[in-house]
């Protein structure tokens, strides 16, 4: 559409119906300003993640904004990845995301304390060599160090085969 006043490309489009007659007006930005109309603001030039974080904090609260940026120090899983995927990465995630998980567990199970069976052999979350290997693998991939990543992947596969 072209501006009806100056023949530039129109960015403001108005239409009204009066007594069954439809009237349309197409103006460019400068002509719309002269007529007392304001054209729409262009969208902000920001990264999508920053916009989403801002919207979360604005509409839900600061705690959720902190949780959105939180990640597990052992496995590297981000809380928002858990929310979208529905799976935790390691046992340490229960502690790392306790502020966000406690309400979910209370709603789903009616309690936040585990009273069922536990595995016989327990390795503290920070001492598990497999979790450390997985964390190192994620870091190597993030740094694009694919040779180290392949070595770590092979070590993880070897551990699986030994089990």
From TrEMBL:
Pfam families: UVR. One of its GO terms (biological process) is stress response to copper ion. Signal peptide: none annotated. One of its GO terms (molecular function) is cobalt ion binding. Residues 132-157 form the UVR domain. InterPro entries: UVR_dom, YacH. Residues 110-129 are annotated as: Disordered. It comes from the Bacteria. Transmembrane segments: none annotated. Residues 111-129 have a biased composition (Basic residues). PANTHER family: PROTEIN-ARGININE KINASE ACTIVATOR PROTEIN. This is UVR domain-containing protein. It comes from Tautonia sociabilis.
